[in-house]
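Our consortium's second objective concerns turning raw sequence data into structural hypotheses that experimental partners can test. To show how far this objective has progressed, the report includes one record in full. It was chosen at random from the queue rather than selected for favorable results. The single chain below, 309 residues long, was entered without modification.
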Amino acid sequence: MLKGLNSIGSIFIMIAIGFILAKKGLLDKKTNNLFSKLVVQISLPLMIISSLPKNFTLDSLISSSNSLLVAFLIILIGYGLAFLMTLILKIDMKERGVYCALFSVGNTNFIGIPINISIFGEKSIPYIFLYYIVNSIFFWTIGVYNIKKQSSKSMETGFIVTIKRVFSPPLIGFLLGTLLIVSKVNLPEFLDSSFSYIGQLSTPLAMLFIGTVIYNIDFKEMKIDLKTVSILIGKFFILPLTAVLLLSLFKFPSLLNKVFIVQAAAPIMTQIALVTEYYDVSSKYSSFMVGLSTIVFMFVLPIYMFFIG
């Protein structure tokens, strides 16, 4: 647990540096856009390709694949509970799809991957992606469908389009790393070291990004109402607790259990703000919740580490 707390301390320092640099005007929305592209499209995929064959075998990957069902149940139960909350809180019909998505799906990619790797090391990568795959497919199918139902706009959907959105560069890197494991091929040393060096940029860039996001939030406009509180409770208490209960029914590796709990508690998925902006459904509120949940996550993360060790 001490190692985990040390990692969290490092994370807070990097976020603080990002906050300070943003305050001084050295980081802004343009640099954030650059950081997100560097992390998602370059550093994370290369790190995964380099590290996966070093930490896992084909047998260990196959033995963990049945955890996909658990990840699906965690998100599905959260989504179902969110729908019940929309009835209890009398959420407007147009906003129910957004509420359920904010409640149940998380930023398991841009934030979830660097955070888990920073805390648990590169051995956690396959487990991270098992949850990420389910999270992404769920959002781009059930989540987006229920958001767009109340919109007059149409967005290209379908199986092929969903697959393209799910198959992000990090997931492609995961598949390439798995291919190296299956084929028992080792990367040439110069490629392996280059990929590893670039991959090490992932966590610091992601944390600087978060620091900038926190700085740019207008706290004066924050209105913490019952709807907002219920989403935060769902995100940071109900979903992680659901994960704990479901995982206790199976004999998965301890590391997988820890990763799934952190992934279940990941802050709100950034893509929700983009989709709601497109459909013109609660876009400002979604963006606000993405930022707020990111802040809250940084403070509840040490609590999770205390309990899961």
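The partners drew two points from this record. The two ends are 5 Å apart (CA to CA). The CA atoms of residues 136 and 166 lie 6 Å apart. Both points have been shared with the crystallography group to help prioritize constructs.
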